[in-house]
Amino acid sequence: MPDQPIAGSRYSWSDPASRETLQLIAEGIARLSGFAVVTIGLVRSDDSLQVVAIAGSEEARRDLEDVLIPMADLRAELAEADDWGRLRFVPAERVAATRGAWGWVPELDRLDVEDAWDPHDYLAAPLHDAEGSLVGILSVDVPTDGRRPGEAQREVLNVHAEQAERAVVLALERERLAEQVRVSDAARRIVREASAQLSIERILQDSTAALVEGFRAAGMWLQTTGTPGEVASHVHTSSGEEVSVDPALAALVEQVAQDAWRRQDAVVVAPGHDLPVTPEQREMILDLLRDLDVGSVLFVPLGAGPECVGHLALTRLPGAPVWTAEEAAAALDIGHDLGRAILNARTFEREHHLVRELRALDDYKGRMISTVAHELKNPLASVRGHLDLLELADELSEESRGWLAALDRGAQRMGRVIDDLLLLARVGEAGHPLVARPVDLRQVVADAVDVVALTASRKGVLLHVDLPAHPVTALGDADEIDRVCVNLLSNAVKYTREGGSVTVDLALAGDQAVLTCSDQGIGISAGDQERIGTEFFRSTNPEAVAESGTGLGLAIVRRVIDRHHGHLEIESELGRGSTFRVRLPAA
Ligand code: ADP
Fold first, then answer.
1. Of 437, 530, 560, 562, whose CB has the highest number of CB atoms within 10 Å?
2. Nearest residue (CA) to ligand 1, atom 19
3. 558 and 444: one domain?
4. Which stretches of 398-461 are assigned E, i.e. beta strand?
5. Is the model's pLDDT at 246 over the cut of 60?
6. 44 in Cβ contact with 52 (< 8 Å)
7. Residue 539 alpha carbon to ligand 1 centre in Å
8. In this structure, is residue 192 part of a structural domain?
9. Is the pLDDT of residue 210 over 70?
10. 75-101: per-residue pLDDT in tens?
11. Does residue 240 have a pLDDT over 70?
12. CA distances from 139 to 51, 231, 335 (A)
């Protein structure tokens, strides 16, 4: 019987109630069985017996409480025992020499009778669970009548042993449930903390302590798989350092993780446990554990859906309890949650990378535009200077003057495009941050109205301007806001037919300064409105294309408003007119 397999370590005796129950049972047996000293010990998964209840002797309690007795010694002792049904009796003559190292011998005078109890006699009842696994040992000592028990007393002891067995099994079950709750609580905490993080390093930082503590591990490491076809050759340990691993071993471990994820299984790696690998591979893994001075590992695949993204390994020191089925199940749940968190972090990292690339591309485009515009500026100034000189010449025919005027118009237009390009690049450059100061928008709007007033009156477009009596102050760059006003107003005039009107209105609304520019012009179709403000975009409406323009004005408007943390709203209907509303943070 003592050679029965040993139940897993299921108890930590964190639950004082279980211990108390066993103590009460021991005391009851001490009162009723005719034996003054009674102990109950529990078999631990590290193959030792922990004495958790002692009744009848303070001295025995001092010597035995929580002492771990090697099961090997007990087995050797019980192998010598007489079989008394449930009970095992080893008379003093046969007690093993090693006994002295762990047993307790009462100070007792031996009676001078044939069946006298010897202080070295050992009487115990091995206790088993429903599956027949040895879970504890009840032992009795110091008979009140000073004799070895006869048939009747053995019967009584048998009944007590049965009762103790039930109590031990219940206590273990209770502890197992408490353990399950404790581990899954830890799991929930880990998930909550880790899933908020978007980098694998932070996920680890936040979950390591909870994982190690929750699983009573000595340490842990986590290895994420590289991109497909590439094997990650370093692991993150709980101490925060990254450790290099032999690539062959890393590949093997990754394979084990993939298989475990497919089977939805957490694997216990320890001497004496089966591993789904070849014997050589198993030796390689166990060698590693020995090198790291690790007794056992709970190996948990991490993943989401069909994808395995790495593994988590929780370690325990040699001699510590091996992992239970409940711990493995809770760890697999964590494997799901951590797997999802890692996938999220990876997606975030990829997006981040993409945004960085796009930004770099945008910067490059901005630099390119401003370089080209600068390079065009000087030759264009030279062209315009020479045109001015040519216009002064006397001997030019009317026809030639007409050609010169056309050249001059073209040069002016090129000048506008270059200025717009330079401004567009400037307001989009990271190296040219906004310098915001309070700006009274009434002045800016009045200046912009002055710029377009002549064109409007020449075209027969009526301008209504409604400026409040009090200042409307926005925080920003006066020149840039001026370009916004001029661009919106000149567009309104440009895209409004003769006889139409343009209204400019300025107001404060809460913490925003609101500039509204409405016209009764040609309007913009819903489709075009979606693309308006992207560089070089001009409406598909032929009436709009007939007007000269670069398609850069609104792009500048948008960028300026963006960097002022404002908003641009467009309401427009083809053929009926448009309203552009700019909201800027008020100073
Ligand atoms: P452009 O130099 O072509 O005017 P913008 O960027 O200022 O460039 O405007 C882009 C396009 O938006 C214009 O080509 C025009 O089709 C349309 N648009 C802008 N403002 C108005 C408006 N007030 N009414 C109708 N269409 C407009």
1. 560
2. 491
3. yes
4. 437-440
5. yes
6. no
7. 7
8. no
9. yes
10. 888 888 999 989 999 998 887 766 666
11. no
12. 10, 56, 44
Rounded distance from Cα 554 to ligand 1 centre (Å)? 7
Q: Are 336 and 303 in contact (CB under 8 A)?
A: yes
- Cα separation of the two ends of the chain: 88
Task: Verify whether ligand 1 is closer than 6 Å to residue 496 (CB atom).
Answer: no
Q: What is the CATH number of the domain that holds 580?
A: 3.30.565.10
User: Which pair of tokens denotes residue 88?
Assistant: 């095992």
Of 524, 540, 548, best ligand 1 pocket probe by most atoms within 8 Å of the beta carbon:
524
Q: Is residue 457 part of a domain?
A: yes
Mean pLDDT of the chain: 86
CA–CA dist 327, 180 (Å, integer): 7
pLDDT at 529: 94
Rounded CA gap, 184 and 48, in Å? 27
Query: Cα(467) to centroid of ligand 1, in Å?
Result: 24
Residues 372 and 299 placed together within one structural domain of the fold: no
Mean pLDDT is lowest, of 8-17, 426-435, 501-510, for 8-17
Do both 219 and 308 map to the same domain? Answer: yes
- Shared domain for 174 and 44, answered yes or no, is yes
For residue 409, is it within any domain? yes
The DSSP 8-state label assigned to residue 146 in this structure reads S
Residue with tokens 């994982």: 211
Average pLDDT over residues 172-201: 72
- Higher model confidence: residue 118 or residue 213? 118
DSSP classification of residue 429: -
Judge whether 455 lies within some domain. Answer: yes
- Which residues, other chains included, contact 400 with Cβ-Cβ below 8 Å and sequence gap of 6+? none
Indicate if 100 and 142 belong to the same structural domain.
Answer: yes
Q: Which domain holds residue 92?
A: 16-183
Q: Which residues is 88 bridged to in the sheet?
A: 83, 124
Domains identified in the chain, total number: 4
> Cβ(554) to ligand 1 under 6 A?
yes
Domain boundary among 352, 378, 402: 352
Tell me how far CA of residue 493 lies from CA of 459, 486, 490, 550, in angstroms: 8, 10, 5, 16
Asked if 522 and 574 touch (Cβ cutoff 8 Å), the reply is yes
> Would strands 462-466 and 501-509 be described as parallel, antiparallel, or unpaired?
parallel
Residue 586 DSSP SS3: strand
CATH (domain of 105): 3.30.450.40
Band of the pLDDT at 566, cuts 50, 70, 90?
very high
Give the integer Cα–Cα distance in Å for 425 and 434. Answer: 13
Residues 567 and 494 in one domain: yes
Total-model pTM: 0.52
Helix axes 478-494, 553-563, angle to 10 degrees: 140
Q: Tell me if 570 CB under 6 Å of ligand 1.
A: no
